Amino acid sequence: MTYRQAKWRGWLLAVVFLAASLCGCTSAKQPAEADIVILFTNDVHCAVEENIGYAGLAAYKEKMLQETPYVTLVDCGDAWQGEMIGTVSQGAYPVDIMNRVGYDFAVLGNHEFDYGMQQLTVLLEQANAQYLGCNLRYTGDGENALSAVQPYAIVSYGETQVAYIGVSTPESLVKSTPAYFMNAQGDFVYDFYGQEQGNALYECVQETVKCCQEEGADYIVALTHLGTDESSAPFRSIDLIANTNGIDAVLDGHSHSVIPCQFVENKEGTDVLLSSTGTGLNYIGQLTITSSGNLLTSLISDYPKVDEEVRTYIDDVQHRFEADMDRVVAHSEATLSTFSEEGIRLVRNRETNIGDFCADAYRAVGKADVALVNGGGIRADLPAGDITYGDILAVHPYGNTLCVVEVTGQAILDALEMASRFTLAQADDGKNAVGENGAFLQVSGLKYTIRPSIASTVEVDENGMFVSCGSARRVQDVQVQAEDGTYAPLDPLKIYTVASHNYLIKQGGDGMTMFMDCPLIVDEGMVDYQILITYIRETLDGSIGAAYQEPQDRITVEG
């Protein structure tokens, strides 16, 4: 199906809406008797009331229905995770709201997998939208949790047929929790055609395009969660377009890119429309297939109206959510505190029991050799007795995401040295902690000694980023815990897996540059507070035991 295209740009509904940019092409394909309007969102991440909000989206959808009978609403992934309203309900509240707004089709983003396959099955059954994914493959012997996902769907708008193809990122294997895609033996049984430098994905999508064409589709729209970040190559939406033909438009997610309209040449040199809405309902995306055969994309912001029924429903869900924040989700036999018994904050200069707990959670969920958590990122205590969702959110309020990276033992030594460069032999002056440093690392899978009498030889640049360390080191006797619980000296040349979060691993947070270029096993997976919840549920069986009553002698500070 080749067709002639003409390009143009302008402003859509500029009098009524802000930031609504437009571009498109003309087509010799079967025109519709009325405009076909495809509204799309991506990477909402539980932002149910932010920016335009779901109530504004519902109102805008209703406005479009007054102009044409052919309106379809789709989502391009990562809708259910990102804020506590998703975590407390394991995704159920966002799905409820999306049902009320009236989504027709959606694709699975990498973070839709963060609640595990069993819960994903429940959510797919709960959702009114048909989830699409042509590149989701199950090779196991048991029940396929993704059996409800269909490769594509074709919708008839009068005499015109539009095919919707779903494509989820192969990066899901590392950008969610890898264990969720494995069987009990640790073998991967789910994949996304991520082999052969992208060719497997391209061939899978091309075969799906062929199926849609054979069934009479006049237009083919790919709903993708691929993104345009360079680090995602060769699985970017632009890579997919360049290596396939027959797709008319790609509506994309994953990289949080704001793309009002971009033309990308496909394998035959034909322009394909690409658009993406950013994140958090900053924009509503709109693809219009006009009755004259034009394909137009636009981004709509600041729509002034809201659907009152949807807003009332969201308010009701929010009330339930707020009640859930006070719901007891765990029990603790110990008070986990950032403070000493005298009320002096020590989490930034000494090992604490809550630091041990948080680091253990990262290590267990990330299935890593070692875990590192900066003391400055642990913001509250957990009480003995009942623990609520709100208590856990207070500990980790930043929304950082799990990363697991392969590093040398030397990189771990450098990180510990960087984190301990301000540590003093004396923890406090009787009133305040001394030598505090938000970079001070709470650890799991390690034990070591800090000798503050040795002057720090850490060198940082003008921005406080780690550069090097001299031969004299204050962090000594570093040992790594084995699976049987015993410890052995850390080998500077050996490769270890380290679990932490994106702030420390990818962003060089607290000046930690030593991990930034290392191979990632998990790349921005589970949200930090959900890591704690998952650890309590899946490893501790819902109860934090007396083992956390005191710090576990992982970090010794000598004079």
Task: Summarize the helices and strands and which ones pair or pack.
Blueprint: E1 8-11, E2 21-26, E3 36-41, H1 53-67, E4 70-75, H2 84-88, H3 92-101, E5 105-107, H4 117-126, E6 130-132, E7 137-138, E8 152-157, E9 160-168, H5 172-175, E10 190-191, H6 199-214, E11 219-225, H7 237-242, E12 249-253, E13 258-265, E14 271-277, E15 284-289, E16 294-300, H8 308-325, E17 328-332, H9 353-366, E18 370-374, E19 385-388, H10 389-395, E20 402-408, H11 409-419, E21 441-444, E22 446-450, E23 458-460, E24 466-469, E25 475-481, E26 487-489, E27 495-501, H12 502-505, E28 520-522, H13 528-538, E29 543-544, E30 555-557
Parallel strand pairs: 3-4, 4-5, 5-6, 9-11, 11-12, 12-14, 17-29, 18-27, 22-30
Antiparallel strand pairs: 1-2, 2-16, 3-15, 7-10, 8-9, 13-14, 15-16, 17-19, 18-21, 20-27, 20-28, 22-25, 23-24, 25-26
Helix pairs in contact: 1-8, 3-8, 9-13
